[in-house]
Amino acid sequence: MRRSNEMAELMRRLLAHIGEDPDREGLIETPRRFLEMLESLTEGYRQDPKELITGAIFPVKYDQMIVVKDILFYSLCEHHILPFFGRAHVGYIPDGRVIGMSKIPQIVEHFSKKLQLQERMSEEIADFLMDALTPKGVGVVIEGFHLCMAMRELQKDAHLVTSAVKGIFRRDPRTRAEFMQLIGRR
Predict the structure, then answer these.
(1) Nearest residue to 164 via CA among 185, 186, 137, 184
(2) CATH code for the part of the protein at 2-41
């Protein structure tokens, strides 16, 4: 509770610093709402991603590519603490084990719920799946729109695309090309 009170007071001081009156009607509850939002947007720090997949890995005789695409995500840029958001595409080739399809969006969400760099997020998702599933390979492509670039002096409408490829996705250009085709990228 003490920490919450300190954070709320810090937010009140920040509002005053930018020239606002933290006691005006529309802002009275803002420090509390800000804290709730910040807790939600950074829950990845307080969650073990291994718990997300407990009981969700299954043995299977299937060795073709599995892709979950267009996974909507929201994150916060660690440099400016402004949002970036977009879509993630995740594929893997199993080696005797698959993960429940709904777990992949949850994994993406977990790694997006931190102060983040899109490049790091791509790697973290790929590394986690490689460790958890030991597949033949993993591919992750993330397309993000960064408000830190769009809202500030740069005011550019540009999207950042990052990828992380592991195992056969890295070694075999045909596998990588198939993944890119399946997610609609060339």
Answers:
(1) 137
(2) 1.10.286.10
Q: Which residues contact 153 (CB under 8 A, 6 or more apart)?
A: none
Q: Is the pLDDT of residue 186 over 70?
A: no
Per DSSP, helices labelled H in the chain are 2-17, 30-41, 49-52, 103-112, 118-133, 147-150, 168-171, 173-182
CATH class of 46-182: alpha beta
User: Does the pLDDT at position 84 exceed 80?
Assistant: yes
Task: Give the residues across from 115 on adjacent strands.
Answer: 76
Q: Which residues make Cβ contacts (< 8 Å) with residue 57, sequence separation at least 6?
A: 97, 98, 99, 100, 132, 133
Return d(Cα 74, Cα 147) in angstroms, integer: 11
pLDDT at 1 (0 to 100): 63
Average pLDDT over residues 84-93: 98
Residues 43-51: what's their mean pLDDT?
A: 96
Structural domain spans, the chain: 2-41, 46-182
